[in-house]
Amino acid sequence: MKNEKLKIEEIFNGATYSDFLFRPQFSAIQSRKDVDLTMSLTRNIKINVPIVGANMDTVTREKMMKTLSLEGCFGFLDRNCSIDDQAARVKYVKRQHSYVIENPIVIQAQNTIEEARRVIAAQNISSLLVEENPGNGILAGILSHRDLIAAEDRDQMLVKAFMTPFRKLITVGPDITMDKAERIMIENRVEKLPLITKNKKIKGLITLKDLRMVKQKPYSTKDKKGRLMVGATIGVTGNFMDRAEALISAGTDCILMDIAHAHSEVMKEAVKKFRSKFRNIELVCGNVATGAGARFLMDLGADAVKVGVGPGRGCRTRLEVGAGVPQLQAIRESFLAVEGKIPIIADGGVSNDKDIALAILCGASTIMMGSMLSGTDESPGVVVEDAVTRRKVKMYRGMTSVEAFLDGNAVGYNAEEAISQAQSQEGQSLTVPYVGSVTDIIKRIKDHLCSAVSYAGEKDLLSAHKKISADPEKYLIRLSEAAKRESFER
Fold first, then answer.
1. Which class is 106-216 in CATH?
2. Which candidate, 394, 398, 348, places its Cα nearest to that of 375?
3. Read out DSSP for 60-99?
4. Which among 263, 370, 446, 456 is most buried, taking Cβ atoms within 10 Å?
5. What beta strand segments (E) does 320-400 contain?
């Protein structure tokens, strides 16, 4: 892309979030509860809250992924694990809180109670459908939590001795409506409703808990079958195509092809390989920090571009290498370069909620968050007490940190190579304050984004994004140092 510097407005050169405020506009909103925050994640996926969990092993694994999608957000499972482990996490999330569980976990009538307990613990579920014989899919009964209580200290006895047999079950056909299923379950005082054919073949399962969750959270990020949507990450070398195939087979809705410097030949070759086999899956590529990089990825076939080189707390690229672009400038360059054809995911540098608003008003569609989510109950890891401050904290680390490298990516290196690689990593590990549930953070961000839409004089976030990003010099104020102190020091 030629003369990309000429395309960016002067106020954005060298600028980031703390350099701006935007002018308040007349608001016609009666209630901020009516504000719509829907934005595009990719070319074909929209989410109701523009928050994306970072693909980091201290941020987004199955628990965080499930919660984010349930709350109308999104996330990407990290790849710092085996292919099988990552695919298993995808399958776990896809089974959670859908109207119909299409492939419920089953066990055979001839299995032991001990084997059933192991499956229930591994899958984090409360009951199992029981099939007559291995692989035949014919429903024989249900083994519930109450049945397992009755089987206490009888682990070597068979499942069929304690399960609720088929003749006592309430079952329905696979085409039942949501309302009718709820009515049947309430009338018969059951919490599980197997879906079967006339020949008793298992076709799915409806649980009262999931059915009510669907009604309570209609804004959740779900696929066409009513299942929670899942994102997962791959690299660009080695077995990345095997990983992609396993993740897509497991039900992944969106793949993130993620490397530190995506404006590169290695990314180009990887995208070509990926698109030669997977033409219809949504693909996000990153990271880049320039308009030329964003246009490069779009032209390769990316459905969204992830923007940010070095702004995050877990990244030391700018400190160690000197490469990078101030984050708001990078967002603006990328937004102008792709000309609205695909969305921009702003990754890194967000320290508070006003940064999220500014990123979207200046060109981003969604915001990827790492450190702001890593101190929550839903992030991986345990809460510990800081030895000095005695405050509760959790670990957060960049995926190019030494610790992350040694935990996952060092596989395949000999000792000398591993030491050399570890010493040249561009990430860091640190602790972040423990802040409770991520749902509280999401609610706070939603409230502040609704306020930002009101101050922008619009009724929905997309309209505010379009208005201000179309003419930022009309609405943005570049702050002096004195104005920054007045605005942000409290």
1. alpha beta
2. 394
3. -SHHHHHHHHHTT-EEEE--SS-HHHHHHHHHHHHHTT-S
4. 370
5. 344-347, 366-369, 384-385, 392-397
Element spanning 284, H or E = strand 282-288
**Was 315 annotated as part of a binding site?**
yes
- Whole-angstrom Cα distance, residue 273 to residue 156? 50
Q: How far apart are CA 117 and CA 122, in angstroms?
A: 9
Catalytic center residues: 315
Rounded-to-integer distance, Cα 244 and Cα 78, Å: 13
Q: 359: number of CA atoms within 13 Å, CB side?
A: 31
Instruction: For residues 341 and 42, give the distance between their C-alpha atoms in angstroms, rounded to a whole number.
Output: 10
258 marked among binding-site residues: yes
- Measured from the Cβ of residue 85, the count of other Cβ atoms closer than 10 Å reads 13
d(CA 346, CA 330) in angstroms, rounded, equals: 9
Angle, helices 327-338/353-362, rounded to nearest 10 degrees? 30
Query: Quick check: 274 and 241 in contact, CB under 8 A?
Result: yes
C-alpha to C-alpha distances, 204 to 104, 106, 137, 479, nearest whole angstrom:
6, 11, 11, 58
Question: Please, where in the chain does CATH 3.10.580.10 lie?
Answer: 106-216
Q: What does the pLDDT look like over 14-26, one tens digit per residue?
A: 999 999 999 999 9
SS3 of 411, please? coil
**Rounded CA separation 63/377 (Å):** 9
pTM of the entire predicted model = 0.86
Which position has the higher pLDDT, 468 or 145?
Answer: 468
Is 202 a known ligand-binding residue?
no
CB-CB neighbours of 305 under 10 Å: 27
- In terms of phi and psi (left: phi > 0; alpha: psi -120 to 50; beta: otherwise), the region of 320 is alpha
If we measure between CA atoms, which residue out of 78, 162, 50, 6 comes closest to residue 452?
Answer: 50
Task: Please give the CATH number for the structural domain made up of 4-96+221-488.
Answer: 3.20.20.70
- pLDDT given at position 157: 94
**Residue 412 annotated as part of some ligand binding site:** no
Residue-level pLDDT at 404 = 55
Please indicate if the annotation marks 310 as binding a ligand: yes
Which run of H or E residues covers position 121? helix 113-123
Q: Check residue 20 and give its pLDDT.
A: 98
Element (H, E) at 207: strand 202-207
Residue 309 assigned as binding residue: yes
- The neighbouring-strand residues paired with 128 are 143
Tell me the angle at which helices 327-338 and 291-300 cross, rounded to the nearest 10 degrees. Answer: 40
How many percent of the chain have pLDDT more than 90? 76
259 is in an annotated binding site: yes
Comma-separated ranges of CATH 3.20.20.70 domains in the chain = 4-96+221-488
Q: Which of 465, 464, 446, 454 lies closest to 30, judged by CA? A: 454
